[in-house]
Amino acid sequence: MEFSERFNAPVSEVWKVFYNPNGWDPWFTDGMKISEDGEIYFRWFRLTDGQVVTDNGKIVSVIKERLFSFWWYEYEDGYRSFVEMHFQPTGDNETIVTVKDRTLVKDEEELHVRYGCAYGWGQMMLLAKIYIEKGLIVI
Fold first, then answer.
1. Cis amide linkage into residue 26, ω under 30° from 0
2. Residue 3 to residue 116: CA distance in whole angstroms
3. SS (HEC) of 43-57
4. How far apart, in whole angstroms, are the C-alpha atoms of residue 87 and residue 11?
5. 8 Å CB contact between 117 and 19
6. How far does CA 37 lie from the centroid of its chain?
7. Cβ–Cβ contacts within 10 Å for residue 139, how many?
8. What is the dihedral angle through the alpha carbons of 116, 122, 126, 129, rounded to the nearest 10 degrees?
9. CB 54 within 8 Å of CB 42
């Protein structure tokens, strides 16, 4: 899956919203953590109707203001999903963020996993755009 969004903001500002110790709090997650030792922790409850949903992951690459990649979606003895987030400045006050998600599914019965991820990334990009460009939290 691949999703791109154009943000009317400099890459330095967009980067700080996506890569910081509190992750995507307060605009998308509820207690997310990104640690310097390569761990990533996800937590939601506002977007999951009050049900606490958590997951862990491993950071693979961090190139400031260019690339953030990680494994997540714990599954059997590893992770189900590898994500790359690319940050491309296209002007002084404009940045394109592209999210590439490679999610493992074994068969048709697991396709709902990919659909759920697709829904989540689209939702995340929209909420990030509103937060970055308007300063609004809509969840």
1. yes
2. 14
3. EECCCCCCCCEEEEE
4. 7
5. no
6. 18
7. 14
8. 120
9. yes
Tell me the sheet residues that pair with 4.
98
Whole-model pTM over 0.90:
yes
The pLDDT tens digits for 129-138 are 999 999 999 9
Beta carbons of 18 and 85 less than 8 angstroms apart: yes
Place of tokens 């790359």: 84
**What are the residues whose beta carbons fall under 8 Å from the beta carbon of 126, sequence distance 6 or more?**
5
Residue for token digits 């990104």? 34
Bridge partners of 71, per DSSP, are 58, 82
Express each pLDDT in 14-56 by its tens digit: 999 999 999 999 999 999 999 989 999 999 999 998 899 999 9
Where does the pLDDT of residue 115 fall: very low under 50, low under 70, confident under 90, or very high at 90 and above?
Answer: confident
Calpha distance 85→107 (Å, rounded): 26
- 58-86 as b/e: b if 16+ CB within 10 A: ebeeeeebeebbbbbbeeeeebbbbbbbb
- Tokens 């992750």 identify what position? 23
